[in-house]
Amino acid sequence: MIKGALGKVEVRDPVRFGPAVRFGLPSPDMFNKLNKAIADTYPADLKIVLDDERRPPGIMASIVTAKKETGETLLSDKDRVGIFYLSAVGGTAEGHTHLAAELMKQSKEDSAGIGNVDLAVALGTFVGSDTLNIGVPTNPVERAAYFAAFIAEIVKNSKNGNDKPVDQIYLIGQSLGGFELSYITPLLEAVFEAEGLETKIGGMVVIQSGGIASQDTIPGVARFGLQAGPVTSMKDEMAYFYPTFEELAKIETELAHAKDKGDPSLILQKQAELKAMTARKNQKLHLNPQQIEHLDEIDKKIVAALLGEHQQVPPLLKEREKLLLPVVQELVKGVDPREIKPQGIVETFKSNLGLGKFFASTINPWGKGIVRTLPRSIRDLVNVPVAIVPSPNDRYFPGKMQENTIADDAISEVSKLKEKGEDISESDLVAARKFFSHAPHLFLATVQDYSHSLQIMVPERFAKFTIDIIRRMREAKPEDPYMTRLNYTPD
């Protein structure tokens, strides 16, 4: 057994866990390579020179590798694959260990397979407790450089009993992590080349990410990107695990409307959502017996108030939130709240408020970037397959807004070409219509009934659709259409 993610995690064969590691200051040689890669990779307005006098970046990683017994080779030395997950704001490496393990486990169970997955790594964010006393680089290129150096170092040490490091890696980023990937990926390719590594980047999967759609703010977050940082309400996460009768009634109404319209696909989707929501309401996952009793008591009072004294509903909902918010906040950090004493929950709640202030102070200088569409000059640097994974249930980066942005961007870019009044080649038109113009394939994969932090709380579902996307990337042929639409519903 291993302590950490969600309390105690059973180590499942064929994986073994390594301790979380912290990235120190790169060597002078690596600084030179990073500065050359930056100069060769980015457009003029983004070129920077890294300062080797700064404090170590402090980002951390939890590493899961394929298990090999003494004298036994479980994996061939051919087509070995690594998966790197970059977390959202507040995400720690240790808190995502179980997610890395789940990605590897699911890769073994995928019916078609995605190669010999020999390495799965969870990277903590710069904006979280891993770097709480170190400071956050405000320039996305600087953050990308340190991530690229860290990933390259892990890849160099990924032989795992074989003759060479992994052959191919896939980069997965959620929320802020997804935003960072467009800066990291092209730089990482240059660093691999400078380090003499033959490892290739097979694709990047951008999940519920900033940088896709432009939005004035993020709903549910206090003026994010304008004046304050991401002090989130966790309302979506509470509604997911512990839905109220009103939330169930809302899905039932949506199902009724779908039946009135006679829309078979929408009917199936809403039926699946209702079934999953009802199951979660009955299961009351991650609550201890005392918490379950308290929640049941509150919910009974809410039902009685709805039938009588409606003015009692708001204070009861506040009492419900006071009970569940610390639980959900612990789950997001990768801790099992059932193992925390009541006083510990109170102290952790206070700690989260402190982290909120930390996020606010560090994210301010660059926060606007994450609520704006990534510049075309950055997207054009990405030349690997890309998957954009939105969710209609995402409060912070709404899925429909992202889908509309991708469509509108194509129209806008074609219009810009035509305004030049010059002869336009077919290849120019094709590139203009692509959101990532140099990516060979774009997968637009919508995940239904999935709020913003569920990768931590429901890692099995996250791993299942992520591994399926990677498998499709690997199977895609050059002659396949540029965009493939995918839809993932609850099991």
The counted number of beta strands is 12
Helix content: 40-55%
> SSE string, helix = H, strand = E?
EEEEHEEHEHEHEHHHHHHHHEHHEHHE
* CATH class type of the largest domain: Alpha Beta
What is the makeup of the main sheet?
A: 10 strands, mixed
CATH topology of the largest domain: Rossmann fold
CATH superfamily grouping of the largest domain:
Alpha/Beta hydrolase fold, catalytic domain
Spans with pLDDT under 50 lasting ≥5 residues?
Answer: 1-16, 69-75, 222-231, 342-351, 361-368
Number of helices: 16
Radius of gyration: 23 Å
CATH architecture of the largest domain: 3-Layer(aba) Sandwich
Overall shape: globular
Distance between the termini: 28 Å
Structural description of this entry:
- The chain has 491 residues and is an alpha/beta fold.
- It folds into two domains: 2-214 and 372-488, Rossmann fold, CATH 3.40.50; 235-364, no CATH class.
- It has 16 helices and twelve strands.
- The chain has helices at residues 28-41, 97-109, 140-156, 176-194, 235-241, 245-261, 264-283, 289-307, 313-332, 342-363, 367-370, 376-379, 399-419, 426-432, 454-457, 459-475, and strands at residues 2-4, 7-9, 15-17, 21-22, 60-66, 80-86, 116-123, 168-174, 200-207, 386-389, 442-447, 483-488.
- Strands 3, 4, 5, 6, 7, 8, 9, 10, 11 and 12 form a ten-stranded mixed β-sheet that branches.
- β1 and β2 form a beta hairpin.
- α1 packs across α4 (176-194), α2 packs across α16 (459-475) and α9 (313-332) crosses α10.
- It is globular.
- It starts with a strand and ends with a strand.
- The model is unreliable at 1-16, 69-75, 222-231, 342-351 and 361-368 (pLDDT under 50).
